[in-house]
Request: fold
Amino acid sequence: MSQRVTELLSTSGGTAALRRINFVPAQFPDAPSIPEGIDFIRLNDPLERPEEMAVKQPPQQLTPKKRPRELFRNEDVQLQWSSVRRMGAGLQNMGNTCFMNSVLQCLTHTPPLAEVLLSQRPLGLNNGVDVLRMTQQHVQRALQHRGGIVAPVAHARGLKRICRGFKLGRQEDAHEYLVAVLDAMHEGCLAGLPKLPPEVAHTSMIHRIFAGRMCSQVRCLECSFESNTFEPFFDISLDVTRAPSLVKALAHFVRADQLEGPNRYKCPKQQRMVRAEKSMRIERPPNVLVIQLKRFGWTNRGIKVSKQVEFETELDMSPFMRRRGPPQLYALYAVLVHAGHSTHCGHYYCYVRAPNGLWHCMDDTSVSQVSERVVLAQKAYILLSEAAAA
Reply:
């Protein structure tokens, strides 16, 4: 700088008038547009330290937690056993808990569920009341103590948490308990996560294995306008009072009901009351199909429908789908039976197919091998089938 000043003085005859220039802060901000190719330094802006000139990130605690798009991939559902195993342990009756024992045996020998519970790290919360965690621990013990007896103490103690209206020591309904356990396990899959939209929550491990999608349709018989409502389902309950077989009961389930007379339907397209038909069909089949044959009802004061309803070890669900397509084959792996005359008394037990393909009768602590013919002769209450591998 001093050399430049000397040069200026020499060119001006050795004299120069020096004057201090005072910069006054601008009264108006700089113009927002800056010509291309020219770099400006705003004189009024305070200079930033080098560390402040780095890209600033918002505080970590202010960053919203990302919601998962999918909790459990459908392609990760393993429909078949990964290895050949023998039958699991028998279960000790904790006081009229045969309904609970039979359901736990069916779940323990459900291949897609057991494969996840056996191979994954601890699931759910370790708080002593999480149904997903206690079921995982039960399945691991039951399949490791083959030929032995396991006491399902945790499930017995947590009975009221699983189903609020249940009471230990009292005979309860096995189907109601099954649905409650699945729902509680699904909630365990969501524990610790932020509130999720339904389309994400319905990708939990339990939903991927047991849930399907049902379509309820109302169709106008004059203009063919269709109104469709879709709902997830864990099981299908079938009226068997007039059905001699499972297939006939399913056909009756999807048969359209006529809406006419005082039950006519207001068509959204025509905006008037019209004749219509209402039906239920499966939009998306589940990986594990749970079917309840309704043998109890309030209309007959709890008297059981004890008739024989024929079923087979293989079932094709394609005739009952909303869209007809290739066969939807299912293989039977568990049959839950109620022995007795009403909902207020009786005994529950089940038949399950072991990983080695052999059928066994699971009656509390008693475990015995049976033939397939014996299984098909049962007056089933709940049927569980797995989708055939593609």
